[in-house]
Design a protein that fits this description.
Biased composition (Polar residues): 1-10
Keywords: Kinase, Serine/threonine-protein kinase, Transferase
Shape: globular
Radius of gyration: 15 Å
Organism: Saccharothrix longispora
Biased composition (Basic and acidic residues): 13-22
Strand order of the largest sheet: 1-2-3-4-6-5
CATH architecture: 2-Layer Sandwich
Number of strands: 6
Order of helices and strands: EEHHEEHEE
CATH topology: Heat Shock Protein 90
Low-confidence stretches: 1-23, 150-158
Number of domains: 1
CATH class: Alpha Beta
Structural class: alpha+beta
Largest sheet: 6 strands, antiparallel
CATH superfamily: Histidine kinase-like ATPase, C-terminal domain
Number of helices: 3
Helix content: 25-40%
Mean pLDDT: 77
Region (Disordered): 1-22
Length: 158
């Protein structure tokens, strides 16, 4: 189930679906000048989920959004939605931008020599991630399994 179908919809303010604490949907333009605002929105929408999962989602969102803010053109927007049915649900995180020709690479950054590890973290925390193009737009996405009480949590390890 996709709570927002299609990625052609205009940006909306962040919103909670209101159908229960485990249903989450977010679509918002990106505040590149202050990523803490985005992290607060994400944390608020995930209230009631496992704390470790919330931290993982915040980190993945932060890295994907920072990449778009550093390397891509506007419009940029973040979209999160829940997909699946029951115990195999995943949270899908998408960052849309207008730089279809600039594809992110693991371990590389034009923003400085101490940068470029964000996608390694995204890869470690996600069940899958990738990039797709849609016309002049690019979408960098990641899927994180939503933990049930019985499921072990995937953690970033050194």
């Amino acid at each position: 189930m996709t709570l927002y179908s299609g990625s052609d919809q205009p940006s909306r303010p962040a919103e909670h679906t209101g159908h229960g604490k485990d249903e989450v949907a977010l679509e918002t333009s990106l505040p590149c000048e202050n990523l803490a605002v985005m992290r607060q929105e994400v944390r608020g929408l995930l209230r009631g989920f496992h704390e470790e999962f919330v931290q993982d989602v915040e980190l993945v969102c932060n890295e994907l959004v920072a990449n778009a803010c550093d390397h891509a053109e506007e419009p940029r927007r973040l979209r999160m939605c829940r997909q699946g049915h029951g115990e195999n649900d995943e949270l899908v995180i998408e960052v849309h931008d207008a730089s279809a020709d600039r594809v992110p690479t693991i371990g590389g950054s034009t923003a400085g020599r101490n940068r470029g590890n964000g996608l390694r973290m995204v890869q470690a925390l996600s069940s899958d991630w990738g990039v797709r193009r849609k016309g002049a737009m690019k979408v960098v996405w990641a899927r994180l399994p939503i933990p049930s009480d019985r499921a072990p949590r995937k953690r970033l390890t050194a």
